[in-house]
Amino acid sequence: MRAKLLRFFEWRSSPSPDKQVDDTVDRVARKMDEGTTIINLEGYFRTARHYIYLESLESEELVALDDIPERADQSPAADEQKETRLRCLDECLEKLSLEARQLILNYYVDTKRAKINHRLQLAEKSTINAVRIRACRIRKDLEKCVKNCVSKAA
Question: Between the CA of residue 29 and those of 22, 41, 48, what are the distances in Å?
């Protein structure tokens, strides 16, 4: 069980997988000491590790990319590269069908709860998973197109 727990936390790039394994085992042992009847021990460990993992995510200081200020010391070459990428992105967006372009632009509008609500509105005609998959495919195509365009411009 310890090896399975360790693998779980390592696969999720936990900063301290050994500590989280110990916390999971301690939590399950504490519940057993309290007299909790555990019918499916492996399932109980899975649930406990999930909660330990979620708690570790909450304790980390996550910063949205939009909240990170741009560096003032960016060189003109970096600005030129950024402009090239933006120009290529515009060109690649123009190559998409109107429906695909609207979906991808609407998929990345807003932040936090507003983004979630907006994505749920996009999924009214289908499911949220279908919208996610479609947006992922469009994004991959856009990435390829932009990389090709940037490499040609360089």
Answer: 10, 11, 11
